């Protein structure tokens, strides 16, 4: 072989080897990870208080009545109190006798949570309304003597079957989808009624009025012909419906949105997936890198997301000690994806050593999951320590703060194990809504009642393709207090059941359409990682908001509250709120009468309510 040919061959082979090497580096990220590369930059939030001054106007007064013997009414009461607390509103519980002493006022509302009104004097309520008082009933009740006050023309008692679905006739809060009768998210026992012509209907179900407002004397009544106020789904509607009874109402919004990638980074399945092979002709790892992650990175940049990835070590079912170390056997694609996520300003949290939920055989879990229980807390602690070792090795300098339980199943033993093994974790994110299945951890937002070192930050929704029920969940929490916490899984696109047999092209288009709609309708929701979202929520919850109302002015003052702060503001249909440019920005919410979003850039803001010109 000639010398020139040898040199040419050497050059070609060298170039090919270099290309393969670069591709390998690109795929598995072999460059060493430094602690500086992974140090998390926490979001900073400004907190201010209003200057002391005398404020004119009336404060909102909400008085909640529930018959002590009405068990369902008391459940509605607890649900409503939680919803009001999230919106930074407060209702005072009163007795039937105390109700007689309430003076009518345009910013005073009596809230009835149950169907047992036997203690109430109809004539007292009638006088209260005629003189300008406001009344809101969250549960339907049959009381023909109340028909005139409620705006009912004829009342044929209860419909003998359950009514399903919900239809928006007049917008209470924008964004809610209609739910057909085939959707069981709302299932109600309802009155068979015909309303008077002047009554304004906001919601209905199967043609039956569900939520309406009736003006009576100088006052007004808002009535829920429903038994669904006992459930979490609908809290946003419950809060916003209070504004229908009032001349004006201000509710607070934390203004947060977060997006979690569960089971990520994790070992990538190496088997050929028929959906991926058919659509892209790629292996599963190649699809994850070239298609799925490329789209997720694009979504992050286009819509501002700060992802929280929940890392998992393996998918084996070993739960007994000794547990093998993960240090030498992790797939190299895990640090690759983890570093990419951190490079986008994201956060890595913990999902588990494997996908076996942290419960013992004595704790409840749905047996259909097929999981292997852990023998004791010590085994759980060992598994979590294995993940801490792996995290420190792959992402030095990055502190684990967030934990998501596998399949959203967790009990006391698991919580105690987390507290012992990973003291840096102070956030647990499970489910906001659960079904009837056994063992799923349902949470409220805020400090855990059993383990106060943890803050609960439950997920609201999940998936790339959001059906109408899921969109309803999302919208309702926004209406309640302005928060989105959504989950996706990398392998949703691989699973025929979870993807509905649709390919990634379809799922990604649906997902992007939802994100675009969210940005368009609720641009004020700040994209944050879970740890930063919890930080903002904690500041929001600890702060104080006071609102004073009059016919022409609304004044909002705060103590130790976020700046900017966000609110929904409802004003009379014939009024327009105005604010100075330095104090904030008002944006009319689409498809609504009198509902605005306020971004307050000062701790004290004053809204002037101007009469609209005819």
Automatic annotation (TrEMBL):
Q: Which InterPro entries match?
A: Class_I_gatase-like, DUF2194
Which branch of life, at top level? Answer: Bacteria
Name of the protein described by the UniProt record? DUF2194 domain-containing protein
